[in-house]
Amino acid sequence: MKDTTQYDNDYENKWCPGCGNFGILNAIKKSLADMEIAPEKILMVSGIGQAAKTPHFLHCNFFHGLHGRALPVATGAKLADHDLTILVNMGDGDCYGEGGNHLLAALRRNINLTLLVHNNMVYGLTKGQASPTSRHGFVTKAQPQGVAGQASNPLTLALSQGAGFVARGYCKEIEHLSQLIRAGISYPGFSLIDILQVCVSFNKENTYTFYKDRVYTLDKEEYKADDLHQALDLTMEWEDKIPIGIIYRKDTRSYTDELAPLQSGPLIKQTYDPKKIQKAISAV
Amino acid sequence: MSIDVTVTIGGEAGQGIQTVGDIIARVCHKAGLYLLAINDFESRIRGGHSFLQIRISDQPVLAPHHKIDLLIALNAETCVRHKKEMAENGLVLLDVENDAEKDDSKENLPEEAREKNVLPIAFSQMAKDAGGKIMTNTVAAGACLALLGAPFSAFEHILKTTFAEKEKILRNNMIAGRSGFDAVKNTAFAKAFDWPSHGSAKGKLLSGSQALAFGALAADCRLAAFYPMSPATGIMIHLAEFMDQLPVLVEQTEDEISAVNMIIGASYAGVRALTATSGGGFSLMTEGLGLAGITETPVVIINSQRPGPATGLPTRTGQGDLLFVIHASQDEFPRFVFAPGSVNQAYDTMIRAFHLSEKYQVPAIILTDQYFNDSLQMTTREMEVPTEIVRFITTDADMSSPSEYKRFAVTASGISPRALPCKGRALVCVTANEHDEAGHMSETIADRNIMVEKRQAKIQGMTEEMKGPDRYHGESDVLVVGWGSSAGAVREAVDQLRSENFNIGALHFSDLWPFPRKKAQDALSGCKHFITVEQNASSQLGRLIRQQTGLSFYSAILKYDGRPFTPNWIAEHTKSVLEEIR
User: Fold this and answer.
1) Residues of chain B with pLDDT under 50
2) How far apart are the CA of B248 and the nearest CA of chain A, in angstroms?
3) Which of A238, B171, B197, B568 is most enclosed, with most CB atoms within 10 A?
4) CATH 3.40.50.920 residue ranges in chain B?
């Protein structure tokens, strides 16, 4: 077991006792320790919400930005310096609600970012409203008659958009989740890891008990995660059994490998050449 | 100036107005003439009415003229639309089928265009005869140049460079050009002039968009993220032309919100980054602007204005966003706002904006507009690229203890040493929440006050960086005061009024925020009255001056029809005000 304390900091944690986010935080630390990525070599980017506070509780570089906008910030940082290892932390409201268009674009670009969605199917920071992944009929103070619409299925959506790495983890299965995160960081394109996260304060339905009875781990020997149709079927399993693991992975090239100006190295490492610029401008 | 001719080419979108204009502009430019061209078009790809207007002179010209000397009408509607703008001895060439059987060539003209100064010329028929209707533009350009008195060789030269690698196409275009040229051989045109026999180009001919793009390159901008929106898109297109030779990436985003957040991410990671949009897109970017504000991330945002609100007039010009961009986003934080008045100033402003944005770690906003971005202007000055770019970035080597680095450390100037993430042991922690010096969220009274005061502290240094208004006959009794793209039109208006013995000068503001209060007061203190000239409905600069200096404008000359200023329009309106003052 590698030392995870190097990622600890003394900033006061602000989550509720028993929050599923603690398991995710520990899994992140474990995967970084296992991969031997030093704290100063990590960039965490997040949006707004309880999940988006994650970077504050880690010893690392971070950009804690606006609600829904973590992916554009992370994309900008990656385009500027594609040598960076960037993890993005968002919640379900943050990523699938406010930032939905950015998720679609990130999937399309297939840029090498690892996105961890802390999916607790409820808004925690704003105290308990329905989220895009709340089930039909889910009752909250803002939806007293229950959610009238249907829950979105982000993993099916991602696969339908050509995603190359789609996985689901569970906040209680820390070792398993840390392996998923490792696989995501190692993947050359965009990786989406949706994490079943328990909100002990505002979601009384999707509890630890709820998941204990349903969650099962995909067997790596039996399930190869390379068949899109099989993967799509798995993303639609929910009522009785919920699979966790890598649901789909395909070979890919990162977006940054496709862009001409990045082929001579990261933008930040290229040199300012006034003579060349002068020549280029004068030639017009 | 002995030569001052305005040529307008009008027709439907898709008829090739641009091509005719390009040929004429290039021939004049190559011959050593000065010119300025404006583009007027509707928000549609085909049909409607568009025109391109070129003002040609032997002296530098700074604005479009209000009268047309020569109108090339590719359809009859163009004659009707521009009838009122025709100069006294102006001539109209209208593309119609010529029927030689008719005794009077005027009978070939459609009824609505039967004016004495309208000449029917069978441009498209001549083009067909030369090999294809597509060459109508070449025929029209030939006729226009012949009337202006250009030597055919000058025209020939440009055709040769245009179609250098396509021999057959060149041959046909030469025939087409010749027939257009010869068709008006016996037509007298009052404004024909003697062409410089061995002229050479007096400078570079470029659009405002190009000048902005060049400035961004010279400023070492590495990432330009944008969502397409008129009239800003052209800036990004011009930048993209350099992607195969310079370290610059142009990234089209899913929306403007993404564009602004992306450049913030890129800048945080260490490269200079830009976005360009118009008012509607800027509205979407306002939350991101605040993010740049609270995270103290340098970014440059160009807002190329068009009339609004909402969609407004997508392809027209305006200056209605000044107070908006100064105040955009909730709460308060320092920012720069610039509004260049010429292509040279736009180039310089880009370089300055990137520099100052990084020096003070604040967003910089550049206001231009459709007239400025889409018009072609000449610059006789070399666009110099800075030999060095100062980045104001700190590294572990500059720190006694990198592990204790604090991104928002309090300093007297308000500027904290800025390190980059993943470049050393110093951790760069940044949040959109109010925070402590280390970049962690904080809700304490002390941290809130410290951070507000730290950000606001930058304003003093920023204000000192701001230039006062450019003064033109600034000692005069009455001053006309404008900002941004109207600089040229205002200056020519002043020339016109001074030639009529009015005691008048002008001030032009390019640095608008933080407002150069003292310099503005000094420039305004000597005049008896000042009159603002702006393309909005409430004199936003006038209100800003009053707010910042306590000085009030006597009157405001305002135009919000979406069309550019002409010097004559400003001069005439100024005269009415001057009469009132008397």
Assistant:
1) none
2) 6
3) B568
4) 470-581
CATH code for the structural domain at B4-183: 3.40.920.10
* Among candidates A53, A64, A277 on the partner chain, residue whose Cβ is nearest the Cβ of B246: A277
Domain B470-581 maps to which CATH number in 3.40.50.920, 3.20.20.70, 2.10.109.10, 1.10.340.30? 3.40.50.920
What value does the mean pLDDT of chain A take?
97
How far is the CA of A157 from the CAs of A107, A180, B30, B258, in angstroms? 10, 19, 57, 20
Instruction: Measure in Å the smallest separation between the Cα of B213 and chain A Cα atoms.
Output: 10
- In CATH, what number does A5-255 get? 3.40.50.970
Q: Output the CATH code of domain B206-379.
A: 3.40.50.970
B463-488 residue pLDDT tens: 999 999 999 999 999 999 999 999 99
User: Which of A152, A164, A154 has the alpha carbon at shortest distance from A248?
Assistant: A164
> How far apart are the CA of A160 and the nearest CA of chain B, in angstroms?
18
Measured distance CA(B483)–CA(B322) in Å, rounded: 10
3-state SS of B246-313? CCCEEEECCCHHHHHHHHHHHHHHCCEEEEEECHHHHHHHHHHHHHHHHHCCCEEEEEEECCCCCCCC
Q: Strand, coil or helix: what is A180?
A: helix
DSSP label at residue A58 = S
Q: Quote the pLDDT of residue B69.
A: 97
Is the minimum CB–CB distance between B294 and chain A shorter than 8 Å? no
CB contact under 8 A, A74 and B206: no
Chain A hits for B408, CB-CB cut-off 8 Å, are none
Of B242, B268, B385, nearest to A63 by CB-CB distance is B268
Chain A contact probe: residue of B29, B300, B422 with most A CBs at under 10 A:
B422
φ and ψ at residue B338, rounded to 5 degrees: -125, 155
Q: Using CB atoms, which residue from B261, B428, B439 is nearest to A76?
A: B261
Query: pTM for this one?
Result: 0.97
Q: What is the pLDDT of residues B324-334, one digit of tens each?
A: 999 999 999 99
A37 interfacial to chain B (CB closer than 8 Å): no
Cross-chain residue pair A73–B261, CB shorter than 8 Å: yes
Q: What ipTM was assigned to the predicted interfaces of this complex?
A: 0.98
Q: What is the pLDDT of residues A111-137, one digit of tens each?
A: 999 999 999 999 999 999 999 999 999
Q: What pLDDT digit, counting tens, does each position of A181-195 carry?
A: 999 999 999 999 999
Displacement of CA B221 from its chain's centroid (Å): 19
pLDDT of residue B19: 87
